[in-house]
From TrEMBL:
Keyword ATP-binding tagged: no
Low complexity biased stretches: 25-41
Keyword Lyase: no
Entry keywords, A to Z: Toxin-antitoxin system
MF terms in GO: DNA binding
Pfam families referenced in this protein's UniProt entry, alphabetically: PemK_toxin
The species this protein was found in: Microbacterium sediminis
Similarity field: Belongs to the PemK/MazF family.
Protein name: Uncharacterized protein
Annotated stretches, region: Disordered: 25-59
């Protein structure tokens, strides 16, 4: 039973990535900056790949993918920040996040890593500097070094992302344990996710 759940999760992520690849290859939009739309910004190259940024397969396989949080019942929340240029649970990192329309546009933004997804992907929730009132649930987080202007941030509790380690633009900072625990508590209440062993 648990094995079929993991297989279904992997298949769902594969389908989402394939859909994003197909959309990006059929989109005829001009390339633009990350904040105005267009294609995802270049990410840092991997240590082992010979593909170059700009290759469709390279950017599609490492792009950030939105997941339905209710479809990920086995997510394990963890706190293990480590300043090593890789996204670790408990860290705020910057990545290119697709817009909800899933039309190839998106924005470079901070996300809070909340747990491990696969060997080369992590789960993350989006941060925003604008308080929203559109019916979605946001948790006030306060300010931190991830925002160069020192603006307060909110965690979007309604959206979950799978971030590839090579899709991370930069490692901003580790969130302190107290604030991470508040986020984890709200996610546990909302989705039933448990803490990692």
């Amino acid at each position: 039973m648990a094995r079929s759940g993991i297989l279904k999760q992997l298949l769902d992520v594969g389908v989402q990535i394939l859909g994003a690849v197909l959309k990006s290859s059929s989109a005829k939009t001009p390339s633009g900056s990350a904040t105005t739309g267009g294609t995802p910004p270049r990410t840092r190259p991997t240590r082992t790949t010979t593909r170059k940024p700009g290759d469709d397969i390279w950017s599609a396989s490492t792009q950030t993918v939105e997941l339905d949080p209710r479809g990920v019942p086995d997510l394990r929340l963890a706190y293990a920040p480590h300043p090593d240029r890789d996204p670790d649970a408990g860290e705020v990192v910057w990545t290119w996040v697709p817009y909800a329309e899933n039309d190839g546009r998106g924005k470079d933004r901070p996300v809070l890593v909340i747990g491990r997804h696969t060997a080369d992907r992590v789960y993350a929730v989006k941060l925003t500097s604008k308080e929203k009132e559109d019916g979605r649930e946001f948790l006030p987080l306060g300010s931190g070094p991830w925002d160069s202007k020192g603006r307060p941030s909110w965690v979007d509790l309604d959206q979950l992302y799978s971030v590839h380690v090579d899709g991370m633009r930069r490692e901003a900072s580790a969130l302190d344990l107290d604030r991470f625990a508040r986020v984890a508590q709200q996610l546990q209440r909302r989705y039933g996710w448990k803490a990692a062993d």
